[in-house]
From TrEMBL:
Domain Amidase residues, every copy: 32-485
UniProt protein name: Glutamyl-tRNA(Gln) amidotransferase subunit A
Cited NCBIfam families: gatA
Gene field: gatA
One GO term describing the cellular component: glutamyl-tRNA(Gln) amidotransferase complex
Family, per entry: Belongs to the amidase family. GatA subfamily.
Known EC number: 6.3.5.7
The organism's taxonomic lineage, starting at the top: Bacteria, Bacillati, Actinomycetota, Actinomycetes, Micrococcales
MF annotations from Gene Ontology: ATP binding; glutaminyl-tRNA synthase (glutamine-hydrolyzing) activity; transferase activity
General function of this protein: Allows the formation of correctly charged Gln-tRNA(Gln) through the transamidation of misacylated Glu-tRNA(Gln) in organisms which lack glutaminyl-tRNA synthetase. The reaction takes place in the presence of glutamine and ATP through an activated gamma-phospho-Glu-tRNA(Gln).
Length: 522
C-alpha cells in the first residue's frame, strides 16, 4: 500500500472518504477492517487502554469484508448494487442485540447471553454489508453519564485517559475518537449519544423519536429511547442515519414516512436567512467558562455566515431533570422486570432453603444488578406505587407536556435551537461516582429533547480554555426535521474546522501518546 493508504492514515479518514476509496478500488475492505482491528489491539487493552470494546468480532468482520471485496472484484450488477457504505466497518453499543456476538447491556445479569435475533438496525447494517467490529462498553443498562457504571469497568477518554468518555455510550464515542472505528451506534434516552460525543470531540445524533427502529435495543425507558449515529463528521452521521432509519413494522412507535435525504442535507449545508434560537435556560450560570466561550464563538460564526441569532425562553426546562428522573426510572423498573433469573442470563440460587421462584429472582437480581440500576428500580417502583402514582409519575407527565409546549413556542421563533451539549468538559474518573445527583446534572441540556421526542445533534465546538478538552455544541430541530440538523451542522462543522485548523481529533494529545507507548511496549 502507498503511504497515502497506509493503515495509520486510513483509520483517521471519515467513513465517506473510506467509502469513496473502496468504491474506486484504491483499498480493500479486508485491509481496512484489519487496520481497525489492529488499532483496537494496539490501544484498547492493557492497564492504560481505552477499553471501548467489550467484545471484538474479528472473524465475522473480516468475513463480511472479504465478501464485499469479492463482490466488488467480480463487478457487474451485484457490485453496482452494493450500498455506499458497504465494506466500511462499524462498532455497536452493547445494548443492541446481535446474533453471533454476546450482548451484555454492561450488566452481570446478561453476562454471556447471546440474542437469538438481530435488532432491526443490525439487520440493516448487515444488508448494507458493513463489517461489525464488535460491541462497545456502556453504563449498565445505559444508566449513567460516564461508563463507570459498567459492570465490566469504565472506558477511558482518549483525550485524557484519566477522564470519563461520557455515558452511557462512552464506549462507542471513545472507539470513534480513538480511531478504533470510523462509525458506531449508540442509544440516547437522556443524552447518551450526545454527551459522550461532546466530551470526546465526536459527532452524535439523537434522531426524532420513531425515526430509527428500537426493535432489538434493550429497553431502558421506551418512551425516551432512540438509537442513533456516533461518528467523526456530520456527513458520516447522515449517511449512517440513512442506513439504520426508516419505518419498521416491528416497532409500534416507528414513524410511517420514509426518511428525508439526510446525506444531501449534510452535503448542501446552509444557514443563510435561518433563525437560530439560543435557549436562555441552557447556558450561562452553571456552565464551565470554557464551554460558554466556545458556545459564544459558534454563535458568532453562524451569525457571520448569515444566520439570524435570536433568544428564546423555555421556562419549564428547569423541571426537565426532575421529570426525567421520575419517568425514566418508572419505565426502567417495568422494563427490567424481565431479568428474573428465569428467562435471560444469570441465575443465582438462594444460599438457604426454601428454593422458591421468588427467592431465586431476588438472589439473581441482588447479585446481577449494580447499585445505579437498583437505585433506579427502587425509585421507579416507588413512583409508580398506588397512592404515589399521580403525585409523582402523573406530575412528571404533565411537566413533559409543558416542555413540549416550550419547544413548540421556541420553534415558532426559530428554525433550529442551539446550546452547549453538556455543562462541563470531561471530568476525572471517580470524581462524580459517589454523587448520583452531580452525575445526573450532566444531562441537563440533552434531556429536554428526549422528553419532547425531537432530534438533536452534538458536534465538536473546539477546546475549552482552562483544560484543553473538547466542548460540544448541540443543535435541536422540530420532530421529523432531522435534515435541518445536518444542513446547519455541516456549516458549523466547516466554520469550526477553519477556525481550529482542521478536525479537532487531530489535536488529541494523550491518544497519540498512548498509541506510541503501546507500540514501544511491544
Ligand atoms: N445519563 C442519562 C441517564 O443516566 C442518560 C442515559 C441515556 O441516555 N441512556 O439516565
Amino acid at each position: 500500500m502507498t503511504e497515502l493508504n497506509s493503515a495509520e492514515t486510513l483509520i483517521r479518514l471519515s467513513a465517506a472518504e473510506l467509502a469513496a476509496k473502496l468504491a474506486a478500488g484504491e483499498i480493500t475492505s479486508v485491509a481496512l477492517t484489519q487496520a481497525f482491528l489492529d488499532r483496537i489491539a494496539a490501544v484498547d487493552g492493557g492497564a492504560r487502554g481505552v477499553k471501548a470494546f467489550l467484545h471484538v468480532n474479528t472473524d465475522e468482520a473480516l468475513a463480511v469484508a472479504a465478501e464485499v471485496d469479492a463482490i466488488r472484484a467480480a463487478g457487474g450488477a451485484d457490485a453496482a448494487a452494493l450500498h455506499e457504505l458497504a465494506g466500511v466497518p462499524i462498532a455497536i453499543k452493547d445494548l443492541i442485540v446481535t446474533v453471533g456476538q454476546p450482548t451484555t447491556a454492561g450488566s452481570k445479569i446478561l453476562e454471556g447471553w447471546h440474542s437469538p435475533y438481530d435488532a432491526t438496525v443490525i439487520e440493516r447494517i448487515r444488508a448494507a454489508k458493513m463489517p461489525i467490529l464488535g460491541k462497545t462498553n456502556l453504563d449498565e443498562f445505559a444508566m449513567g453519564s460516564s461508563t463507570e457504571h459498567s459492570a465490566f469497568g469504565p472506558t477511558r477518554n482518549p483525550w485524557d485517559l484519566d477522564r470519563i468518555p461520557g455515558g452511557s455510550g462512552g464506549g462507542s464515542a471513545a472507539a470513534v475518537a480513538a480511531f478504533e472505528a470510523p462509525l458506531a451506534l449508540g442509544t440516547d434516552t437522556g443524552g447518551s449519544i450526545r454527551q459522550p460525543g461532546a466530551v470526546t470531540g465526536t459527532v452524535g445524533v439523537k434522531p426524532t423519536y420513531g425515526s430509527v427502529s428500537r426493535y432489538g435495543a434493550i429497553a431502558m425507558a421506551s418512551s425516551l429511547d432512540q438509537i442513533g449515529p456516533v461518528t467523526r463528521t456530520v456527513l458520516d452521521s447522515a449517511l449512517l442515519h440513512q442506513v439504520i432509519g426508516g419505518h419498521d413494522p416491528k416497532d409500534s412507535t416507528s414513524l410511517p414516512e420514509p426518511l428525508a435525504d439526510l446525506a444531501s442535507a449534510a452535503r448542501n449545508g446552509s444557514v443563510a436567512g435561518l433563525r437560530i434560537g439560543i435557549i436562555k435556560e441552557l447556558h450561562g450560570e452553571g456552565y464551565q467558562a470554557g464551554v460558554e466561550n466556545r458556545f459564544n464563538e459558534s454563535l458568532e460564526l453562524l451569525r457571520n455566515a448569515g444566520a439570524e441569532i435570536v433568544e428564546v425562553s423555555c421556562p419549564n426546562f428547569q423541571y426537565a431533570l426532575g421529570a426525567y428522573y421520575l419517568i425514566m426510572p418508572s419505565e426502567a423498573s417495568s422494563n427490567l422486570a424481565k431479568f428474573d433469573g428465569v428467562r435471560f442470563g444469570l441465575r443465582v440460587l438462594p444460599t438457604e432453603p426454601p428454593l422458591t421462584i421468588e427467592r431465586v429472582m431476588a438472589a439473581t437480581r441482588a447479585a446481577g444488578f449494580g447499585d445505579e440500576v437498583k437505585r433506579r428500580i427502587i425509585l421507579g417502583t416507588y413512583a409508580l406505587s398506588a397512592g404515589y402514582y399521580d403525585a409523582y409519575y402523573g406530575s412528571a407527565q404533565r411537566v413533559r407536556t409543558l416542555i413540549q409546549r416550550d419547544f413548540d413556542a421556541a420553534f415558532a421563533q426559530a428554525d433550529v435551537l442551539i446550546s452547549p451539549t453538556a455543562p462541563t468538559t470531561a471530568f476525572k474518573l471517580g470524581e462524580k461516582l459517589d454523587d448520583p445527583l452531580a452525575m445526573y446534572l450532566n444531562d441537563v441540556a440533552t434531556i429536554p429533547a428526549n422528553l419532547a421526542g425531537i432530534p438533536g445533534i452534538s458536534l465538536p465546538g473546539g477546546l475549552a480554555d482552562e483544560d484543553g478538552l473538547p466542548v460540544g455544541i448541540q443543535l435541536l430541530a422540530p420532530a421529523r426535521e432531522d435534515a435541518r440538523l445536518y444542513r446547519v451542522g455541516a456549516v458549523l462543522e466547516t466554520l469550526l474546522e477553519e477556525k481550529w485548523g482542521g478536525p479537532l481529533l487531530a489535536q488529541a494529545p494523550e491518544l497519540a501518546a498512548t498509541a506510541l507507548e503501546t507500540q514501544e511496549a511491544k
